[in-house]
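Lay summary. Proteins are chains of building blocks that fold into shapes, and those shapes determine what they do. In this project we predict the shape from the chain. Here is one chain we studied, written as its sequence of building blocks.
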Amino acid sequence: MDKLIPEPRKVTLKASDLRGILEYVPLYQNQTFIISIDGSVIACDNFSDIITDIAVLRSLGINVVLVYGIGYQIQREAAVRGVKISDVHGTNPVDDSTLELAKEVSAWLAQTIIDAFATRNVNSVCTNAVRATEVGIISGVDYLNAGRVEKVEFSVLGNLLNMGIIPVISPVAVNSQGRLYRINSDSLAADMATGLGASKLIYMTETRGLMLGDERAVAFPLDDVKRILKEREPLVDPRVLSKVKCAITALEAGRTPRAHILDGRDFACLLTELFDKVGCATMIYADEYQKIRRAVSGDVPQIFNMTSLSVKMQNLVYRSREEIAKNISSYFVYEMDASLIAVVSLQDIGDGCAELASLFVLPFYHGNGVGKKMVEYVKMKARSRGFKKLYSLSTKSAPFFTNACGFTEVLPEELPKKRYEKYVKSRRHSKVFVFNL
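And here is the predicted shape, written in a compact code that computers can read:
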């Protein structure tokens, strides 16, 4: 086997590209991405650029665990050596000769990947944190040396990530007695995503993502993808089918909100998918990947920082960290990729009335319906608590409340007495809106 250490290619970033990337940095910082790279992608010309792109992710404070496939190399080496193999991807019975070839190929690719990272000054290590066990006998068929994950030392992987080291995970692992097994890399990556609670599970393959005939699926919720497989599975490229099924497994486990399937042959495909609003691949997202939840004490710093930005623009009334912490139970936040992108408060103002307050959405997400979702959520909560009217006060958002959210502008004097006295004292002269629940 030839030694392959890709040479870095010089890439010139435009200022606009860099600004686009920086907008996402607060969302992705300190998150963990599982990147699974097929052997065919490692062998393609773009592998050098993929390594560079992963180095960029690390420089932005994003944790990466890399899982690699070996099917392409097993098939190629078997042909060169004239060796008959029983399986390519670790999904069928793996005989002794195939396992021996898998062991050799896996070691070679691990060294290739580690050397490639070294040329970018990125620390990585091939770890034995994965413990395998046999697949066993299924429907009367002995799967021989085919294995599955029995246990993963996630604490070891976490320690490596905390030290800024990329764990490189091999699809060949041993059991507690030292017996070697071949594991399917797609399934292995899904197990890694679930165990580490990764924000993203990214499969890099040599196809155009999830294709249904000539139609490429761009972004689908999990339930839609499950329905597609049920109704149109024969139309899905077999090379992608395993990845889709493993992505479904990971997303259903509830700890990973998004999975992506990229064509690893495309230049800058990884950065484009992550940092471009449109992306370039197939994204499968769990129903809860974007969620509104009650705020907790740990959210106070982010809520304060978000609302302080709006205070500077004179959109919101200033509230200190202490005040936010004291009333944290009244706040709801919109969470995406484990980061907060919007906040709102529901306050009891007496006389059977409630107030929608402190509504703020990060500017990057304006125009995506996030603000309206927050308002509709507060309406639902206010109605469930028995309030009859929901008020909101604003100095600049009249069209949003009246046209988009169905509120009606009323005179300030219609506010409950105590809230009206507070209104007069503030001297903000906000417009007052009401929604009858």
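What the prediction tells us: The longest strand covers residues 339-350.
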